[in-house]
Amino acid sequence: MTAPVVVILAAGQGTRMRSSTPKLLHPLCGRPLLTWTVAAARAAGAAKVVVVGGPDRALAPGLPDDVVLAVQQEARGTADAVQAAAAEIDRDAPVIVLNGDVPLVTGESLHQLAVAHTEHDAAATMLTMVLPDPSGYGRVVRGADGAVERVVETKKPGDATPAELEIREVNGGVYAFAGGELLDALAEVRSDNAQGELYLPDVLPILRGSGRVVRAHLVDDPALALGVNDRGDLAKVRAEAQRRILAAHMAAGVTIVDPGSTVIDDGVEIGADTVIAPFTSLHGATRVGGGCQVGPHSTLLDAVLGDGVAVPHSYLTSCTVEDGASVGPFAYLRPGAVLREGAKVGTFVEVKNSDVGAGTKVPHLSYIGDADIGPGSNLGAGTITANYDGARKHRTTIGARVKGGVDTAFVAPVTVGDDAWTAAGSVITEDVPDGALGVARSRQRNVERYSERKKEIEDQWPLKS
């Protein structure tokens, strides 16, 4: 079979979204709507992918380099949109045309449509589905021989008769055509309908009138062609897309304790035997190794986790956590944070742009920013790296096997050597050599009889209420 040209119609204004963002750039499970149909076209083996957009070229920045953008200068309907891509259509090859707002269509379904079209030597083959409630969809009118006679649009009153509105087989908005016959038929489409537009389905009776066969390819899964017209539709499509994503992970050996409370973007990678606890969200380029425990109530954005990592009740973004490390609960790993193998970042700890060595522990109530910490160190509760002097950021270097006392502040730039110690409550402003104890606090002074003396003063000078 000759590889098809795939034309994706994406010039609609999407006014029902009530948004300044073009409809097809709204995100669906981590990536724009339009990229879903582009990916399906590629998976179907397309020789070329053409996206038809509006004159503002708003879609151009989000298109891959190998996707051609054709411009429909005026919003004159779907047939006119395909005509805008005519220069990219090969007369001797099949053409698949679909709307950009059907993100659940798969590469496999497009390939099967193209195969059915080629095997039956049809001029056109359309993907159809039977819906319990076909409202808003074009109805498929078949002839006595079962072939498609025409598709009746239902966008405006008067487009369809009452009898046609009773039909439940609908147009999925996905077509396969013989390239040359499509181009010839487009020239004959007229705008004598309620909206005064040039409808692509109107090429079907034109093709039949020339004696050619128009077939329907009925699919069992109506979700394949679910369209997005407004935010309610987007929510429905997102629910189905999310269900498919979670099902694929579970089939691959991931335990998702409560799919109904779990959000995982398309493209997220998760290893086998990992458990995703309820109310957990995994986004962007996140990769999770095998045997991890993620959640409950954790959010990961562009985070990379090795094997055997635990992340309960925490927020991680653009960071790396190596094998066997643990994060949280209630920890925050910011961009540039790296936790080496077996490291621990505990309760109410924030780490930013820092490298925490293998086996090093920062158990609780600490801020580690712009720091490099060697392996096997232990920083006490309340550790702070003071990395900003009001003008510039500076780094703190802490060696291996360092024992930091509670409430220690490291005022960068400062270096603490291997096997060094810091006393509790110290503000370290100078380097601490290897094996030394850094003490940087004022000496304690006890005021004797303080309570008695305070009471004597209060008796002489009572406070007025």
TrEMBL record:
Its predominant location is: cytoplasm
Where is composition skewed (Basic and acidic residues) in this entry? 445-458
| Keyword rRNA processing among UniProt keywords | no
Catalytic activities: alpha-D-glucosamine 1-phosphate + acetyl-CoA = N-acetyl-alpha-D-glucosamine 1-phosphate + CoA + H(+); N-acetyl-alpha-D-glucosamine 1-phosphate + UTP + H(+) = UDP-N-acetyl-alpha-D-glucosamine + diphosphate
UniProt entry keywords in alphabetical sequence? Acyltransferase, Cell shape, Cell wall biogenesis/degradation, Cytoplasm, Magnesium, Metal-binding, Multifunctional enzyme, Nucleotidyltransferase, Peptidoglycan synthesis, Repeat, Transferase
**Gene3D superfamilies per record:** Hexapeptide repeat proteins, Spore Coat Polysaccharide Biosynthesis Protein SpsA, Chain A
Subunit and partners: Homotrimer.
What is the protein's given name?
Bifunctional protein GlmU
Please tell me the species this chain comes from. Answer: Conexibacter stalactiti
| Chain's gene name | glmU
